[in-house]
């Protein structure tokens, strides 16, 4: 279909926190759309959403919903993607999937456009959107990888509750209100809704995101480790992650230590690399107390980098603080950006 | 003075968050006290505090206040310590100072009893209590240092606002209440009261604790780096820190990566070392979602360790999550513990 007329786009999971941001981002980016189909579970079907002033009724996502759809943005959970993404592809759509269902599938490109846009050319119908905490980290690391190589990455995350969905944000608010009134809290959702134990998130730090693997790392931590290697095409890159949930509504932060492969990078050059990096805004001036913070990143598409320091002991070691809106670059915006890349590369 | 009769103890800064915990801890530990003198600024003098059921009037701290005092616990800010600690020593007292005034003074032992109690024998009247974030980390690292040596330490902190004093806790509560009511906040204290800019702490993460140094690290980060080297007698230990303030009232958490010097430490042995380490409680069972959290450490003297993992790439690399009550082991309890060690070693 000629680009001027636009594409038939579907959003699956249109009532969710990320789905709503996808609709908003498609509108803000003025993505070429001839028709927008909004899909959800049967439970949410029948409600409406607005796109460019038009009210659109959200329909139940079924295999036949994808007839004529060219680009389908999925964000309705892994099981929905596993069931319906192949159905969408069968009907001719390209799927950009925001769940973890296909991320490590070797036939599925895992894409952050600033890093590996070219991988889109090898798609077989499905393209995976990486985990939120992975995306913002690789955007900041890529310029260093390109110029000096990467030897080792150690990251500790400071993650917002919206990464666990809108219900987790409600839980944070509910608990905060209760504790401010000296009332008891009854945790029901975090750290993992389906897990047997739930813990207070208000005024607390919970070092568990997603379920535990046999090696003691959580699935969230393994996502950061494995996805980073795949996106950067560095299967033997040394990456380690510790992921922590915090009483913050929106905005993930990361304390990242990385080692370059070759020596010679100065701190001024490191800051310059970030200043000129695609998708990055450098906020780094200690004399002005300028550094990124989650409260300032909300609603912005960029990855914010600051607190850049050269390690005091190791010539190739660097530290930085990376912040981004986990619902945007971490999810909705990266998905829409992939769709834009598909159009630009004439892959759709 | 014979121990049975007890010692004349003074607490300087008796109305502060840490000072109050010191009084409480002296009582709970049943420290041998013949007389307790409570001192503060002239502003707070005249108020009272309870110790073992007795109401004690808090007096203005003056040089002559230390006549007859044998042990003086200081926690009233660096300038007070600089002025009055030498006056107390001149009058025969041993000073345990919780400020940063003397920590890096080579004539002053910097002591965490689980790590370097023996250093107390070299005191010249003043003993320094390390920074809160340093103490809990070295307690957890020491057993590894003893058995396998330490090569490198990289820590990212998750610090509570009470580390910045009672006014910072009030600010967190005030801002939280305002934001829950959709009102504006007017930050006045954090990250650093005397700094020109103040930032929202409620529902935010602020990657600045204390002022910035020329090398881009904050003073808090340099405290962790330099104090760790001094306490462990490892001037060339590679330590790096990133310190972050979070919307948590009490309880510092730390994501610690460390490398042993010699190989051979297994993950089971690492957990065993923590299980048997003095001052440490191991809380580490992923199958039970058991790990330390700040909300659970409040009011406890121990350092809680969990999320222990062997690095997936480097044989000598380990990750752990270290949590402690920053007002207790991080301040009041470590000070009282130093006083107990002084009695035990017959140094007072």
TrEMBL record, chains A, B:
Origin superkingdom: Bacteria
Keyword Oxidoreductase attributed: yes
Name of a matching Pfam family: Semialdhyde_dh
Regions annotated as coiled coil: none
Uppermost EC category: oxidoreductase
EC number, as in UniProt: 1.2.1.11
Positions of substrate binding: 159, 245
Subunit structure, interactors included: Homodimer.
Protein name, per record: Aspartate-semialdehyde dehydrogenase
Phylogenetic classification of the source organism: Bacteria, Bacillati, Bacillota, Bacilli, Bacillales
């Amino acid at each position: 279909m000629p680009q001027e007329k636009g594409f038939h786009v579907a959003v699956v999971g249109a009532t969710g926190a990320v789905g709503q941001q996808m609709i908003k981002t498609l509108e803000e980016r003025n993505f070429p759309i001839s028709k927008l189909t909004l899909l959800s579970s049967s439970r949410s079907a029948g409600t409406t959403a607005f796109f460019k002033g038009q009210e659109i009724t959200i329909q139940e996502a079924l295999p036949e919903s994808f007839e004529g759809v060219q680009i389908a943005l999925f964000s309705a959970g892994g099981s929905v993607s596993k069931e319906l993404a192949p159905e969408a592809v069968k009907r001719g759509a390209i799927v950009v999937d925001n769940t973890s269902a296909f991320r490590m599938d070797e036939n599925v490109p895992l894409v952050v456009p600033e890093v590996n846009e070219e991988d889109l050319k090898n798609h077989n119908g499905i393209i995976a959107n990486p985990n939120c905490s992975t995306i913002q980290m690789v955007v900041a690391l890529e310029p260093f990888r390109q110029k000096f190589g990467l030897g080792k990455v150690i990251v500790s995350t400071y993650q917002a509750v919206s990464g666990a969905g809108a219900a987790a944000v409600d839980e944070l608010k509910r608990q905060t209100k209760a504790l401010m009134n000296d009332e008891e809290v009854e945790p029901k959702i975090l750290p993992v809704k389906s897990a047997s134990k739930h813990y207070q998130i208000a005024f607390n730090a919970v070092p568990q995101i997603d379920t535990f693997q046999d090696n003691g790392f959580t699935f969230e931590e393994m996502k950061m480790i494995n996805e980073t290697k795949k996106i950067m095409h560095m299967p033997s890159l040394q990456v380690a992650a510790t992921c922590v949930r915090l009483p913050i509504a929106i905005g993930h932060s990361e304390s990242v230590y990385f080692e370059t492969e070759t020596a010679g990078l100065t701190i001024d050059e490191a800051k310059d690399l970030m200043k000129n990096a695609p998708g990055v805004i450098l906020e780094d001036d200690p004399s002005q107390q300028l550094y990124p913070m989650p409260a300032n990143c909300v609603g912005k598409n960029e990855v914010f980098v600051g607190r850049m320091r050269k390690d005091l002991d190791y010539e190739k070691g660097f530290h930085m603080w990376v912040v981004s809106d986990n619902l945007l670059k971490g999810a909705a915006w990266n998905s829409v950006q992939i769709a834009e890349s598909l159009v630009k590369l004439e892959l759709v």
